[in-house]
Every structure is written in structure tokens, then in C-alpha cells.
Amino acid sequence: MIFNILNKLFEKFKLSTPPAALKSSINYWRHLIFPHLRVVIFLFIVLAYLPTLYVTIRFQNWYIVALSTVMLLWFVYLIFHQNLKYQFKVYGFLGMLYLLGIGGIILNGPIGSGWLWFFTFPLFASILLDFEKVLIAIILNTLTLITLGFFLYFDMLADFHISEYSLFDWITNSFNFICLNFITAISVSFLMTGLGSTLVEEKKAKSALRLEKAKLSIAKEKAEEVNKLKSNFLDNISHEIRTPINGILGVNQIIQMEYPADPHLQHYTEMIENSGKRLLKTLNHIIEMARAHAEIPEMKLEELNPSQMIQSITPHIQLLAQQKNLQLETKLQAKSSLVIADRKVFHQIISHLLENAVKFTEKGSVKITTSLVHSLRGPSEISIKVQDTGIGISHDKLERIFIPFEQEENGTKKEFEGPGLGLSVVKKYTEIFGGSIRVVSEKGFGSLFEIKLPVFQKLSKVEIK
């Protein structure tokens, strides 16, 4: 109930909204703090006024009755008059504290609360005003105490309780009071100044952050638009290229069927077929690379069994190996482990690695194995290794083979055909599935490519990078 009353008072006495220019500055917070201070002081004054009024009337101390009543009415005026400016209310509030302090010291002497009000005058000034005005408040307190000491020395205040002080006691109390008042008010003022500097820096940082965020948002929108245009362009160009190539290959197939007895014509049509298929394969690689490097590739993620997927791929690779008299070996150990991947893309990854192994191997074998790798620091992984006895890769070329269009041999005189896009696509898709790829190779002794993918576990989230 008390808190509800206080909240209603805060709403009643709240000042008008601070100007927008003051926001995130110390003056803005002073503007918001002041109504709360007034409410707290108002409650304190009301609670102190009633017993003070009773005692002072009983002892017929009419000066204190008059001072207390006038200050209470003045404070009520400051609170309820909504059209007064902020600065006027602050100076009026501080002036009331100053007068209550002087009046209390003069009229009550050592037994009153005048010293407390006198102490709060510079203290509240340090909260509500800047440093220069705090110094003025401290100097005003000092001059006031010196003046009152002068009056004491000449017995000019003999009719009031302040005369109970001896000159020595007055000087001692005044000196201690000024020192304590100075230290407290200056400390609070420095604290408020530091807070103001922090708020200003925070405002600048927030403005800079908003500006950077706006720039990033614009850049992101432009990048998304470019990606969309690139995707549309690739789809269109793919259609425009595939259609005539398929038409050429179709007509070429008809010629092969119509003239099977002409060896020269069959030789030329075979060249056309091989060139057309190579061109289609290169086009597919370019499109896959572009999609893999897009910001958000379109995929259908599902639980896959790598061993079963590899078993479905090997018959096609077996035919390619037999054409070159190579032996294809499979050793699938992690038969029950699952990964999260796109079925089509996973098929592509394994096919790229196996086709590359067969392409770059003239004699010997190609081997693919799967195994489960346990880790103490993270989830278990499935290791998929493709090993061949082919030409191998030079150590200085290992870091570049995953870069698009890079091969160990570049230029028009290279021995093996292909645009050099397969491994870059494999690496990108593997990383998208949260995995990694590495290669170990030696020139003339073959290569080993290893892919590691996190094992899927129920109730766990798979991170798509």
C-alpha cells in the first residue's frame, strides 16, 4: 500500500518530459531524479512538521512555528505548481534547504536539525547541478557560518539558542562541518560528472552501433539481392545451355543409330558425345559450386546412414574402375551410425571423391572405408576415407586443391580433364554439415582423403554452419 501511494505521488509530481537533446546525458537523469527527491523530502518534512509543530506551540517558540510552516507551504507550492520551470523548482528546493538550515541553527542551536538541513544543501546541489554551482553552495555555507560566528562574537544573537555555543565550540564545529561537507559534496559531484561522461560515451557508442547496424543491414540486403540475381542467372543460363546441348546429344544419338556401319561417322559422333557430356558435367560443377558458396544453400536435411549410402554409390564407381582395370575395395565398419545431411548432396560428395580417385589412378586400387571415431572433448564422428594408388599430389599443392578452378596441373597442357571444381564443392558442403576434410598425399604414391561428420544423436541440435 505504501508503495502504491509513493508511485501515485511520483506520477503526480513528475516533471514534464525532458528535452530530447538531454537524453543519455547527466542532465536528463537529473531531470528524472528530481521528482523522486522532492517526494522523499516532502514525506520527511510532513512527518517532522507535525511533532515539531506540537512541541514548538507548547513551548511557544513562534519563530520555529513560522519558519516550519512557511517552508512547508513553499515546498507544497513547488510540488503542485505544474507550470514552473525545472531550474526554478531546483533553485527553490535548494533555497528552502538553505533557509531551513540557517533557521534551525539560529533558533534551535545545538539541539535542532539545522545542521542536517545545512549539510544537505550542497549535497543535493551536487546531485542536481553542475560542479561550479556546487562550489558556490559550499562557499555560501562557509560564508554563512563565518557571518554567524561574527554575530556570536558580538553577542548579536543573544536572544536565540545559537548563543549557547561558545566561540571556540562554534569555530571547531564550523571547521569540521565545512571539511566534511566539502568532501562529501565534491565526491558526489565528481561521481555525477563521471556518470555524465559515461552516459555521453554510451550515447556515442550506441549511435555508432546503430549506424554500423544500418550499414550492415543495407549491405546484407544488397548481398541477398545479388545472390538472388546470381541464382536466377545460373538457373536461366543452365536452362539455356542444357537445352541445346541435350538437343545436340539427342541428334548425335540418332545419327549413331542410323549409320552404325560407318566407322568414321561413329568416331566423330563419339567425340561429339564425349564433348557434350564433358560440357554438361562442367556446367553441373559450376552450378553446384555457386550453390555451395551461396549464403543459405537450399537443402533437405535428414538422418542418413553413410554406409548404406556408400553401398548404393559403389556399383557405378565399380564400372568406372573396371574400365581401367582397377580394384575397388570397401570396408564399412560404422554400419549403424547416422549423420544429418542432404541425401543428394551427400551422394555428390562421395561420388566426387571416388570419381576423382578413379580418374587419377592408372593402376592399383581405390579403397573406401568408414569407421567411428570417439572423442573426449565433443561428440563422436564418422570417418569416411577414400584412398587410391594414383599419381598423388605434391606437398606444395595440397593447400590449393580445395580452391575453385585449382588443380595440380593448370593450363591447356594438363593431362587430366576437368575444371577443378569438385573438391571445392566437397569441402564447402562438408563444412555446411558441421564436418571437416583433410588430405594426405605424396607424389607418385597416391592420396588419402578423409571426411569427418558428427554422429547424429537424439535430442541434440545439429549446427549448420
TrEMBL record:
SMART domains: HATPase_c, HisKA. PROSITE patterns: HIS_KIN (PS50109). Pfam families: HATPase_c, HisKA, MASE11. InterPro entries: HATPase_C_sf, HATPase_dom, His_kinase_dom, HisK_dim/P_dom, HisK_dim/P_sf, MASE11, Sensor_HK_Regulatory, Sig_transdc_His_kin-like_C. Residues 236-457 form the Histidine kinase domain. Keywords: Kinase, Membrane, Phosphoprotein, Transferase, Transmembrane, Transmembrane helix, Two-component regulatory system. GO terms for molecular function: phosphorelay sensor kinase activity. Signal peptide: none annotated. The chain crosses the membrane at residues 32-50, 62-81, 134-154, 174-200. It catalyses: ATP + protein L-histidine = ADP + protein N-phospho-L-histidine. It is an enzyme of class 2 (transferase). CDD domains: HisKA (cd00082). PANTHER family: SENSOR HISTIDINE KINASE RCSC, TWO-COMPONENT HISTIDINE KINASE. This is histidine kinase. It comes from Rapidithrix thailandica.
